[in-house]
Structure formats: structure tokens, C-alpha cells
Write a structure and sequence with these properties.
This protein has about 750 residues and is α+β, with helices and mostly antiparallel strands. Helix content is about 40%, strand content about 20%.
């Protein structure tokens, strides 16, 4: 059990001074931002940003429109602003900012208390509180309505509650209450940070190892679940398939797909994927380019270690440093803070400080939660809640070691060496970590290249302008069924480019899917820039194949669809899209290169319920089986009639253009009516049919005008050669389905 600790009047005074300093610093930032005309995210809040969305929920609540039937955003921030509006009796932006700043300032006092509980030294705790009060990035986000400030407060509160339980101060059951409430609030505010709770609970139980600690952890878990439960039940009442928010997996995919750059940047992959199948798409993206994924992870580590503060709709650089001299003049950045934290943790671990292990585990957990998605200032910043005590410990340890050398007489080197050795040991390791992170941020991931064309790729050999060659291409069929573009899912084609001669020109390409001459899907990008990092053709080296994984997506929803089209690749100079460069070395000198003829099939792979399966299937060659049919028994002269056929492809792919023919033969075997077309009313090429695929096909014919009996037959033949697919037990490969009687109008009877 840890030594008892008592907060004295001096502690309370120091904490109060830290709170006042923190609040004053944030007020100065608010004033600077309010009076700067270039500030784009202060007042009014930009439409479409997270801040504006959260703020709009105040008015929606008073109008009875909040909460929605199911939550899209994590609702913690929205409910905080609604509560603040109720407390203040106003939704004035300035008052709400001051309230947020005040709560963040109080959190700096709470940080003082948490660090005091962690290490017991007043100097460490005071420095931790001051670092949090004056850290410029944290102070900036404390003046806005993003989740950053709230998450930082909740992490500090959870840390304080855990350390309170560890120290067993009077009323320590309150620590369990704080831990549970902060955990529940994190669950509805920053769901991924709920991962901190098992770490806090495990560390506490390991340190205490008693039944009371287990009960306190149990209470915290119950409180966490109790705060989550109303949100979960609300979403489930609207049949939502998620607990808090549907955005989690989407953000994971946005930060880790085959084109990601490590930040919250939309890219071709994230733009092409639908909400369904994200986990599968991510798995396939990693399998497609495993080397790139590993380099992307290291790149994100470098971004995490860097002093840069990437933003999207709220930028610390543009709306903070560029506006407020109080932020611009502050020398403390994240990399400096990280170096201090790592140094402090190393020294504290060497001294066997129990709290150091907790802070290290919390840092790794929060870092992993951020790396799982993408790096952004407002996502990374809450980790400062566990870094400040460690950074303060390192500074105090350094000061305690240096202080004797400032006195006279100075201690002997032999006597002082053990203290200095403990400080010097971690320095080279920390330096290597930071240097490695800087290299990974700058150099990774590398452009995707290959030494030779893979065996599975299709050689192309198309040359453009004499300097650029498409060596080959490959459809990545693991994303969809072979030859099928599934709506709302990517159809991925890998292109292998080669530079034949140095060029100053940057080329672009267009990958289009054309149906009957109409471009249904369009994908236009400069060559070499689909994936991060961008490597335009003017920057390429000769002797290497540059690889691009291009995904196109059909995003129309129009019910069942079954069509075939042409996937065409066009190349043009980057700033001259009107000048298509014909591919030299391709037969026929086409303006664009046809890669393949995939089909779009959705909702069309099942037979109608009205078409019962036959007792036995009839084979047409090795690739087709006729499994159901229906034809009328009678018809009036000239009447339009429909023959329904049900087909199933085998496991062998269809490589030929097949025509499906239904004919009515007279008594002499002469065709009196006929309908020949590819399947699905001519919209789908037979070569586009997937294997083991069931589909219905309707053929409409005009009944002969001459009354009599006619035989309905089915023939499947090759469009190029006219050769018929073999049908067993038929010498002419013609399947006779049944008889149709054409009756005069006066004798017409209903169809049987």
C-alpha cells in the first residue's frame, strides 16, 4: 500500500493559482481570436464543421428535434452544450467559450492534484499543472467546441479517480464514482478512449490486490455502462446496428486504406467505399499492399511524434498560431513535450515508481487508439493528460541532479556519477526514437514500385508520347466476383506504368466504364498520385514499374441491374484533358485502351418465384445449365408472348460471346418466330456472367399469324463462329422445350 498523502492549504493555494493562470491564458486567446478578421472558425461557426453541428443541436433540442431517432455523431459534446446552454440561460458563443475555458482551467488544477497523488512531490505536481495550463495546443482547443477539451478533462478525471483509490485517501470510494462517470462520459464522447478503463482497473487491482479494490472497479464499470445504456437503447430502438455512433469503422478505414496518408484526408479509396463491407475492404486493402500498410503505420508513428498539428475543419496553425501572439510565442510543442515525457518515464521507471508504469501504459493505449484511425491535432492532444506528470517528473529529476553542481564546493565526479548515469542512459534511446519518427514521417510510405510485371497481370505494352508505357494491368478480383462490378463496392484495377525516357510532362489518366457509349463511371487522376505519396511522372526514375491500385465504384441505386460495359483507359497531358494520347503499339490504333468488359450485376441473380425449378437441369456445353422454363400453351395469331428461362452457370468461366436464341419452328422445322440476344434482354454479355450464377432471362416473340402447332426450341451459339453449345441427346444441339398452339381469334382460349 502506498504512503498516506494529505493535501495541505499550500496545495490548495497552488492549485488555485494554476487555475487562475490557465483561465487567464485562455481568455487572452479568446480575445485574440475574436478580434482577428481572418479567423475562419470562431464566429460565426463555419457551416458543415463539427463545431457548427454540435452547436446546432442546442436549437434542435429546444425545438424538440434532438435527440434524432438514432445518433450519428457521438452525443457527448452535444449534450454538454445543451447542458451549458441550460445552465447559462444563453447560447451566446462567447459565454459558451468562456465556460469551456473555465472548465479546462479547473482541469489544470485537477492535473496538479493527480500528479501530487502520482508522485507525492509538490514540485512535480505544480510543474505538471503549469505545463497543462500553458501548453499552447491544448489551450487553443480549450476555446472551441470540439471534443478535445472534454476528452482531456475526462482522461484527467479518470486518472485522478484511480490515483485517489490507490492512495486510499479519505472518501476514496468517491474515486470509484469519478472513474465510472468519466468512463461513461468518454464512451459517449470519444468511444475509443474507453480502452483506458481496463488499463486503469488492471493497474489499480494489481497495486492493491484486495477485495475492496475489486468492488470499487466493479462500481466504476457499472457506472460506465449505466451512462452508455440510454444512448445504446435509443439507437437500438431505431434498429441501429451500432452502439454509440456508426463512424468508428469508417474512420478506421479512412486512416488505413490503400491510399491513406495517415491524416483525415479523403482519398480515392475512402471516396469509393460504401458504408457496408468496411472491415472486408480494409482487410483486402492490407492484403493488396502489405508493404505499404506497414510503412503507413510507421508513417503515422512519425506523425504522432512530430511537432506538426494537422487539422481539417479546425486548424491550430491557421486559427491559432496565425491569430494569437500568445500561442505563436509559446515555444512548447508536442515533440518537446514528448521528449520530456519519455525522459521522465525512463527515470521514474528506473526508480521503480508505481505511477510511472500506469502513465506509460495509458500513453501507449491512447497512442494505439489514435494510430488505429488517423493523426490529427485534436485527436492526439488529449494524451497530454497523461504526459504532463511524466514530463514534470523528468524536469524535476534533471533539476535535482544539476542543483548540487551549482553549489560550491561541487561534489566529486565519482559521487555524482550514479545520479548522472540514471539520467544519461535513456537519452540516446529517446533521441533514436525521435529521429526515427522524423525519418518515418518524411520518407514513408514510399511510392509503390515493382521490378517486373507479376505473372497474374495482363501485358499491355501501350506507349504514350514515346515516353510513358503501360506495361500491364490486373483486375484484383478478390474485391468482387470475377468480372462483376458490385454497386457501392470498389472494382480495383492495378496499373503498372513505366517511364521510357526522362520527361518534364506530368500525365493524367481517365478510367471510365462505358455502357452503350455512355460513361457511367468516371475516375480521373494525375498518374502517380492515386496513393500517398504523390509521385507524378516527371519525378519518376527509369527502370522501375510504378504501381497504382485504382478503384472505381458504381454508386447508383435503381433496383435490379444487369448490364455489360467497356472499361477504357485514356491518357492525356495533365493540363490538357481534351488531348487524348492514342496508345501506340495497340492493334487498330484506338483513342483509348480497352482493358476488360466487366458487368454490373445487382439484385438480378435470383430466379422469379413464379418460375419453378425443373426436375433435372439440361446442360449447354460445359458452362451453362438450363434449370427452369415456362412457355404459354396457346397464343392468338400475332400475339406478343414471353418465354421465361432460368439459367445457372457452372464453375467454368464463359470466355466467348454467346447468344441465347428462342425460336418457334413450324411442322417443316422452319423458324416462324425468333428472338436472339445476349442474356438479360441483351444488356449483359455472356462472358461477363460470374460462375455458379443463377439468372432469369425473358425472350419476347410475336406469335406466327398462321394457326397451327409450333415447337419452341432453345439454342445457345457463339456470336463469332455460330457454333452451338452442345446439348446432350440432341443431334443438332437444339433443345425442344414444348409445343405452342396458335389458334384463330374466335377460338382463342386462356393460356394453360
Amino acid at each position: 500500500m502506498s504512503a498516506p498523502l494529505v493535501f495541505t492549504r499550500r496545495d490548495w493555494l497552488i492549485g488555485l493559482l494554476i487555475v487562475l493562470l490557465a483561465f487567464g491564458y485562455r481568455v487572452l486567446i479568446i480575445v485574440d481570436r475574436a478580434h482577428d478578421p481572418i479567423t475562419a472558425a470562431f464566429a460565426p461557426l463555419p457551416v458543415g464543421t463539427d463545431q457548427a453541428t454540435y452547436y446546432s443541436h442546442i436549437a434542435a433540442f429546444h425545438a424538440g428535434d434532438f435527440p434524432p431517432p438514432r445518433y450519428y455523431y457521438q452525443p457527448g459534446m452535444s449534450w454538454f452544450l445543451i447542458a451549458a446552454d441550460t445552465l447559462l440561460g444563453s447560447r451566446d458563443l462567447a459565454l459558451l467559450r468562456l465556460l469551456t475555458a473555465a472548465l479546462a482551467a479547473i482541469n489544470c488544477g485537477l492535473m496538479f492534484a493527480a500528479a501530487r497523488l502520482a508522485f507525492g512531490q509538490r514540485s512535480i505536481s505544480a510543474l505538471a499543472g503549469l505545463l497543462l495550463a500553458l501548453y499552447p495546443v491544448g489551450a487553443f482547443y480549450d476555446t472551441d467546441f470540439v471534443i478535445t477539451a472534454q476528452a482531456t478533462i475526462l482522461v484527467t478525471l479518470a486518472l485522478f479517480g484511480t490515483l485517489w483509490l490507490w492512495r486510499r485517501l479519505p472518501g476514496h470510494w468517491t474515486g470509484a464514482l469519478l472513474l465510472g462517470l468519466s468512463g461513461g462520459a468518454l464512451a459517449v464522447t470519444r468511444f475509443e478512449l474507453v480502452a483506458l478503463l481496463p488499463v486503469l482497473a488492471a493497474w489499480l487491482f494489481w497495486q492493491r490486490r484486495d477485495r475492496v479494490a475489486l468492488l470499487q472497479v466493479g462500481l466504476a464499470v457499472v457506472l460506465t455502462l449505466a451512462l452508455m445504456l440510454p444512448i445504446v437503447l435509443h439507437n437500438r430502438a431505431d434498429e441501429a446496428d451500432y452502439l454509440i455512433s456508426p463512424n468508428g469503422l469508417l474512420e478506421v478505414y479512412r486512416g488505413n486504406n490503400r491510399d491513406a496518408d495517415g491524416t483525415r484526408t479523403d482519398n480515392p479509396a475512402s471516396e469509393s467505399i460504401g458504408a457496408d463491407g468496411l472491415a472486408r475492404a480494409l482487410r483486402l486493402d492490407i492484403q493488396l499492399a502489405p508493404r505499404r500498410f506497414a510503412e503507413l503505420v510507421l508513417h503515422k508513428v512519425g506523425l504522432y511524434f512530430s511537432p506538426h498539428e494537422p487539422g481539417n475543419n479546425l486548424s491550430y496553425v491557421l486559427s491559432g498560431e496565425a491569430v494569437s501572439p500568445w500561442l505563436r510565442a509559446n515555444p512548447l510543442d508536442f515533440r518537446a513535450l514528448l521528449a520530456l515525457f519519455l525522459f521522465g518515464m525512463a527515470v521514474a521507471l528506473l526508480r521503480r515508481e508505481p505511477a510511472a508504469r500506469l502513465l506509460g501504459l495509458l500513453f501507449l493505449t491512447m497512442m494505439a487508439a489514435t494510430l488505429a484511425i488517423w493523426i490529427e491535432a485534436r485527436v492526439r492532444t488529449p494524451v497530454i493528460a497523461v504526459m504532463m506528470p511524466g514530463a514534470a517528473y523528468g524536469l524535476v529529476a534533471l533539476a535535482d541532479t544539476i542543483r548540487p553542481w551549482l553549489r560550491t564546493p561541487r561534489p566529486a565526479v565519482r559521487e555524482a556519477w550514479p545520479a548522472w548515469r540514471a539520467l544519461l542512459l535513456p537519452v540516446p534511446i529517446i533521441a533514436l526514437l525521435l529521429l526515427g519518427g522524423a525519418w518515418a514521417e518524411r520518407e514513408l510510405p514510399r511510392p509503390q514500385t515493382a521490378q517486373s510485371l507479376p505473372a497474374a497481370a495482363q501485358p499491355a505494352g501501350a506507349v504514350y508520347d514515346g515516353v510513358l508505357r503501360l506495361a500491364g494491368w490486373q483486375v484484383q478480383e478478390q474485391y468482387s466476383r470475377a468480372g462483376i462490378i458490385t454497386p457501392f463496392q470498389p472494382y480495383v484495377v492495378t496499373l503498372y506504368w513505366e517511364l521510357l525516357a526522362p520527361t518534364d510532362t506530368d500525365y493524367s489518366f481517365s478510367l471510365g466504364y462505358f455502357v452503350a457509349g455512355e460513361r457511367v463511371i468516371a475516375f480521373d487522376r494525375p498518374i502517380g498520385t492515386v496513393s500517398y505519396p504523390a509521385a507524378p511522372t516527371s519525378a519518376w526514375d527509369m527502370g522501375r514499374l510504378y504501381v497504382e491500385h485504382v478503384g472505381i465504384t458504381y454508386k447508383r441505386f435503381e433496383g435490379p441491374v444487369a448490364i455489360s460495359g467497356d472499361l477504357l483507359l485514356s491518357v492525356y497531358p495533365e493540363r490538357d484533358a481534351a488531348r487524348l494520347i492514342p496508345p501506340a503499339g495497340v492493334p487498330g490504333d484506338p483513342p483509348s485502351l480497352m482493358l476488360t468488359r466487366p458487368a454490373i450485376i445487382w439484385g438480378a441473380g435470383a430466379l422469379p418465384d413464379s418460375l419453378p425449378l425443373a426436375e433435372s437441369a439440361i446442360a449447354f456445353g460445359d458452362v451453362l445449365r438450363l434449370i427452369a422454363w415456362d412457355l404459354p400453351a396457346t397464343a392468338a395469331p400475332g400475339e406478343t408472348l414471353t418465354v421465361h428461362l432460368g439459367w445457372q452457370t457452372t464453375g467454368d468461366p464463359i470466355t466467348r460471346s454467346l447468344i441465347f436464341s428462342v425460336q418457334l419452328l413450324d411442322a417443316q422445322g422452319v423458324s416462324a418466330a425468333q428472338h436472339d440476344s445476349p442474356p438479360h434482354a441483351g444488356r449483359l454479355l455472356a462472358s461477363s456472367l460470374p460462375t455458379r450464377y443463377r439468372f432469369g432471362d425473358e425472350k419476347t416473340l410475336d406469335a406466327p399469324t398462321a394457326p397451327g402447332r409450333y415447337t419452341c426450341v432453345v439454342i445457345v451459339y457463339d456470336y463469332e463462329t455460330g457454333a452451338r453449345l452442345a446439348v446432350p441427346d440432341t443431334p443438332d444441339n437444339i433443345l425442344r422445350l414444348g409445343q405452342l398452339e396458335v389458334r384463330p381469334a374466335a377460338e382463342d382460349t386462356p393460356h394453360e
